[in-house]
Fold this sequence. Notes:
- The protein is α+β, with helices and mostly antiparallel strands.
- The chain is built from 24 helices and 19 strands.
- The protein has a 5-stranded mixed β-sheet, with helices on both faces. A 5-stranded antiparallel β-sheet has the order 10-11-12-14-13, with helices on both faces.
- Helix 10 (262-278) runs parallel beside helix 12 (327-343) and helix 12 (327-343) packs parallel to helix 14.
- The N and C termini lie far apart (86 Å).
- Residues 34-48 and 133-184 have low confidence and may be disordered.
Amino acid sequence: MLLAEAATPAGASLRAILAALVPVHGGRLVQLPVVAAPAVAPPPAAQADDRTTIGAGFVTVEGAVAAAAAVLRELRDERLDDARFVLCHRPDLPNGDEAIGAAVDDALRLLRDAPEGSLVLSPEAAAALARDPGPNLRALELLALDGGTAIGGSWAVAELVPASLDEVGRRRQARVGGLRYTGRRRRPSGEREPLPRDLRLSGRIAVLVAVAIAGLWASLFLVPGAVDWWQARDDQLLARVVARRREVWTDLATAIAWLSSPWFWRPLRLATLLVLLVFRRWRHLLVALLALFVLETVVEAMAVAIGRPRPLVPILTSWEGYAHPSSPVASLTVTLTIAGLALLPRGRWRRVVTLVGTLLVAAVVLARLYLGVDHLTDGVVAALLGAAVPLVAFRTLAPSQVFPVRYRRGGRGAHLDIDARRSDAIRRAVSDQLGLEVVAIEPFGLEASGGSTPLRLTVEGETGGERLLFAKLYSTSHLRADRWYKAARTILYGSLEDELRHPSVRRLVEREDYLLLLMRQAGIPCARSFGVVEITPEREYLTVTEFIEEAQEISRAEVDEQIIDEALMVVRRLWDAGLAHRDIKPGNVLVQDGHVRLVDVAFAMVRPSPWRQAVDLANMMLILALRTSPEQVYRRALRFFAPEDIAEAFAATRSVTIPSESRSSLRLLARTEGLDLVARFRELAPDREPISIQRFSRRRILLTLAALAVIVLLLPILVENLTGGGFL
């Protein structure tokens, strides 16, 4: 029963809105008893007949909630500051006039003490909504429910009970008809994203330098006389320098020029790449390799295209190749720049090293000019280009504000650093889009996750306390790592019949949120979703769910027959609902208060292949057998699955189908106790021919050929690079 009351002048408008919207949501207006008006306490400044009370009956609480939300939307332009609504529920009574009459009587008693401009619920209605909001979850977000105190010992003004909407939207509100209409503050058009890829001043200068160098090179080919003009200027300067040569200066210049030798910059370059490799900083490593490849390619190509000879003066050191641009200076500069950007955190030390490196390169350019091996423009252009290329590459592809330099062994390279800048962006986004004020952010469960960055959020409670939420941060780096992993797996094992390829991070998080909804509707015990939060458009998103407190992984929990049955029932419900989890491992199966909870549905699938569903069953039975015995698990599994189902599951099981976390535990068990769980389950189940999962396809053949081509092309370059420096 939904009861609405407003001042009589606005009663006609309220009645018209209810009459139009109530039937749409499966309800009907009801005739209130004659005693309705006297039963409701009027405001002090008004009489009882100055109020209009209207009632509507519904079959379900969800229908009443949806209708109340629709009424709120219609009342945006109405000034009903004193309106109040009451929602009652009497599940103990059968449907019919008797139930409606009892609900009306209860609603009138509750309305008597309801504050103006509020919506109150009976405890039964609140409990019904808390148990299962059903498909009208979003409709609930439109209702602001007020806290209150007991009334007459039998009724209470309900607190904001639905756990999935606890504290959501309370700080993003508009007054509509005296009720709080909750909204979400969006990012205004034109506002900069929280974590922009900004070149900053030095990056913009680097771009201008690169454009200027390109213009200079173009002038050498397009402008008649440009080569002679530059050559005359360089020769004049070089003649003055040669005229001032002294033996002591020659020794000093020779020592400084040695820094441009491969014997100096190549070990520094290899050490830089090795540090990035050891600390699994894949993003910085790839950007560094890209910058080296671009710089070396451009320098070599332009040296051959321009073909400038060495200066026509006595040269006091060894040399090879053309003079412009100076390849040794470019190699030294790009190596020092990459080392500073990739190894040093942003701040004072990076600035100091940058200054020292700049002075060092300038000294090398002057030393090579003194020795007569380079013209001034040869060294200056090479130095500017060697600094500009890596600077633009790192500022564009690995900016410090998004990928800060951190030294941390262990964990997975795909995890993003939650520094102050990213934490602030997450706090603002969660506040704006979910209405939750985040108190603290901390990584959580990193060891069991490689495809995202899991976080535990501490948010403010409405009554001053705090509560925990679980969030997963996805970025394009996770998506890119997943694609590389699947490409490598396709080459090694073939194309799996249910391979998923996510086109974007946005689609990935939308899909996970949708699958959580499907699983809850199917009765699968998984976390309730709070929704998706956009951190940086098309680059970073956050999925927020409830935090399953006081839960532990099944690998650490006490597993009895009830836990075994509940875990197997989860797989049975997945099968019946046409779903597959695709990542059943100890870290994704939790035990809370003696009950099984399934988490992390990012890889789940709708209408999967029978092979994938069979693999889900096998993986669940394996992690249960790790804590009990295969005989006990097999015996309990026969209560939910046919023997042929179990035989099919283990006929389809291979090393590649078992998550790495489970695979490690299985290997440890086989090593310590000599027990092969997969083989044991195959003995218990009926005989079944192995199911092949290694498939040859056009994609596998093309990927293999492409990988071989890359190896054939890069291996000679690597060997030449090493042997040219004298290290082999």
